Amino acid sequence: MADENKSRYLHYLEIVTGSLEEKKRWRRYRARVKQLPENYRIAVEALERYLMHFGPADGAGAMTMYEDLADLVEQSVADGIPIRGLFGDDPIEFVETFMANYPLGQYRARERNRFTSAIARAAGEATPPRDRTQG
């Protein structure tokens, strides 16, 4: 009975505060970021801020994306790839391409293309301009 009450309590707590497992994943991710060299950490934290505003908002999808980001940056550090070698000359192009690999990013890319095509048709143009995330 005590285990059942504890389980029920944890269930209600997660409803109010969000998944406890996702919070643990976030803490592990942040610990990884803190271990990066300062210039990479600054870049990752800036990218995080961007993703908080424009990236996937759901817990599991977002966490997978952040964990993949940590993997990518850790590997770049290990391989000696400089910041610009990783993020390129256009960091927005990098982040948009990076996000396009995740479900919400794919949805946004499709909708962006749909919107661009509709405007091109409305303007009487045959071919809409290419989306930046499509390479």
Describe this protein with a few key phrases:
76% helix; DNA-binding; mainly alpha; 0% strand; 135 residues; DNA binding; 7 helices; DNA-binding ferritin-like protein (Dps family); UCP029876
Blueprint of the fold:
Elements: H1 2-17, H2 20-34, H3 38-54, H4 59-79, H5 83-87, H6 91-99, H7 103-122
Helix pairs in contact: 2-4, 6-7
User: Sheet with the most strands?
Assistant: none
The CATH class designation is Mainly Alpha
Question: Any idea what the shape is?
Answer: flat
Q: Considering DSSP H and I runs of 4 or more, what fraction of the residues is helical?
A: over 70%
Which residue ranges are poorly predicted, with pLDDT under 50 across at least 5 consecutive positions?
Answer: none
| H-E order | HHHHHHH
Helix tally equals 7
Integer-rounded radius of gyration: 19 Å
Mean pLDDT across the residues is: 82
Instruction: Count up the domains.
Output: 1
Quaternary: single chain
Instruction: Give the second-level CATH assignment, the architecture.
Output: Orthogonal Bundle
SS elements, strand count: 0
Q: What structural class do the secondary elements suggest?
A: mainly alpha
Name the beta content range. Answer: under 5%
CATH superfamily annotation: c-terminal domain of poly(a) binding protein
CATH topology term: c-terminal domain of poly(a) binding protein
